[in-house]
């Protein structure tokens, strides 16, 4: 599909009293119509920050953004708030972790959706209200006529999520950003929301960016993947292929810590250590303090040289930032070498 969102060399830095927090460093990715891109990482990896920048949800006075973010051809780095306001309602919509934060607590659900539609379409209130009810129906809310007249607190968590998706999609955005859309929900409702996002994508043909730490969710939903670590992309490619055969030691470690990848639960292996402070990134490869493969790289490159993107031999469309020359799955992990 066509590229809707083209992020090039994006860096997002927050100056603080303790120094510069490098939330995102030199991130590049594309989201395409009709495809779902998963941006995967632990908390603090920068996976949410990059999409906040897309929607202009950062505080411009306290954020330094460099690089390029082109949404449907419009450059957003350095754009005025008026551009972001337009973008947020007509070109890109975000589904938040917490629907409470997107829905106004004291306005009826149907009216909120109708007003979002009215703001960008020259139609009557009656037409907008009809559109709101159609949207509620589309996202699988039963009795949408009646439900449209209720307030957010009268909806269950899953229903609020659906209402928020309806609100996000009412102006046919080309990009839907779902940031941990399911973490607050139980497993059954999670699955239903993911199915809904998949179905809506087929119906609207939009691009979806799914931001998550949950690789099971990625396996269900994504076409493409970017794995982030400490504000940088470390592996990208076809989502199913990356999950089946990770090339970067960090991705490999994430997968090893998943129950489904180990027959025997005692073999589950969490990645040792914790992510670095974004105030003080390690030199060389940011992952080196935690990496079980660094002794396979000759010399001290892992400690001293930031790896550039490069293709993985034998894996088409796969890019990693790592000094290893062989895909990680073919190597033995270091024993006791930290
Ligand atoms: Fe590990 Fe070195 Fe690759 Fe970084 S560059 S992931 S430290 S092997
Ligand atoms: Mg987040």
From TrEMBL:
GO MF annotations in UniProt: ATP binding; ATP hydrolysis activity
CDD domains: ABC_NikE_OppD_transporters
Membrane topology category: Peripheral membrane protein
Keywords recorded for this protein, A-Z: ATP-binding, Cell membrane, Membrane, Nucleotide-binding, Transport
Swiss-Prot/TrEMBL GO biological process terms: peptide transport
Main location: membrane
ABC transporter domain span: 5-255
SMART domains the record matches: AAA
GO cellular component: plasma membrane
Compartments, record wording: Cell membrane
PANTHER family noted in UniProt: DIPEPTIDE TRANSPORT ATP-BINDING PROTEIN DPPD, OLIGOPEPTIDE TRANSPORT ATP-BINDING PROTEIN APPD
Name of the protein in question: Peptide/nickel transport system ATP-binding protein
Origin species: Humibacillus xanthopallidus
Taxon lineage: Bacteria, Bacillati, Actinomycetota, Actinomycetes, Micrococcales
């Amino acid at each position: 599909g066509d590229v809707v969102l083209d992020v090039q060399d994006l860096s997002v830095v927050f100056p603080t009293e303790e120094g510069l927090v490098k939330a995102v460093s030199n991130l590049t990715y594309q989201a395409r119509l009709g495809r779902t891109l998963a941006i995967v990482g632990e908390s603090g990896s920068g996976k949410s920050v990059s999409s906040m920048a897309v929607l202009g949800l950062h505080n411009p006075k306290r954020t330094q953004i460099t690089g390029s973010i082109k949404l449907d051809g419009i450059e957003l780095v350095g754009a005025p708030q008026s551009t972001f306001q337009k973008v947020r309602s007509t070109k890109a919509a975000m589904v938040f972790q917490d629907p409470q934060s997107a829905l106004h607590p004291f306005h009826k659900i149907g009216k909120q959706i109708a007003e979002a539609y009215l703001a960008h379409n020259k139609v009557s209130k009656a037409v907008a209200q009809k559109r709101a009810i159609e949207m509620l129906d589309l996202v699988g809310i039963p009795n949408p006529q009646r439900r449209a007249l209720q307030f957010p607190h009268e909806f269950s968590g899953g229903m609020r999520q659906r209402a928020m998706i309806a609100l996000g999609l009412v102006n046919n955005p080309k990009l839907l950003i779902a940031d941990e859309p399911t973490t607050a929900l139980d497993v059954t409702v999670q699955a239903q929301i993911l199915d809904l996002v998949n179905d809506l994508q087929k119906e609207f043909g939009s691009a979806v960016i799914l931001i998550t730490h949950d690789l099971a969710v990625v396996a269900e939903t994504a076409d493409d993947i970017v794995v982030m670590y400490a504000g940088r992309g470390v592996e990208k490619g076809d989502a199913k292929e990356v999950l089946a055969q990770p090339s970067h030691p960090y991705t490999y470690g994430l997968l090893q810590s998943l129950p489904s990848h180990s027959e025997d639960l005692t073999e589950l292996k969490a990645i040792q250590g914790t992510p670095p402070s974004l105030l003080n990134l390690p030199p060389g490869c940011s992952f080196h303090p935690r990496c079980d493969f660094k002794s396979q790289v000759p010399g001290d490159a892992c400690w001293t040289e930031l790896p550039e993107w490069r293709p993985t031999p034998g894996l088409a469309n796969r890019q990693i930032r790592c000094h290893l020359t062989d895909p990680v799955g073919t190597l033995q992990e270091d024993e006791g070498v930290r």
